[in-house]
What we know:
InterPro entries: NEBU/NEBL, Nebulin_repeat. Keywords: Actin-binding, Repeat. Helix content is 69%, strand content 0%. The protein is mostly helical.
Amino acid sequence: QKEYKKDLENEIKGKGMEVSMDTLEIQRAKKASEIVSQKEYKKDLETEIIGRGMQVGPYTPEIQRVKRASEIASQKMYKGEAEKMLCNYSAVLDTPEMERIKSTQKNISSV
């Protein structure tokens, strides 16, 4: 028994149980930890990086030039269409109804 106690004290006591890194439970725990860290990384990426982009103010010279060019083109198109439409219309002579209204207004104003 004395030899057994010596062996116990020298060899076994205090070493604990050795666990291999290849057991299924340890592999599962590592995988779960990786998944959690990936989710946290993606969440940080979405909140911090995505959507910020480059912010451009509406008063940069290039944007003002484009707006002005667009306005000029729009005005030219409007004037061109107006000139085309003018030739489609002609002055209308007074209709009988308009003549009746004018005569009624003259009669009222003379009173």
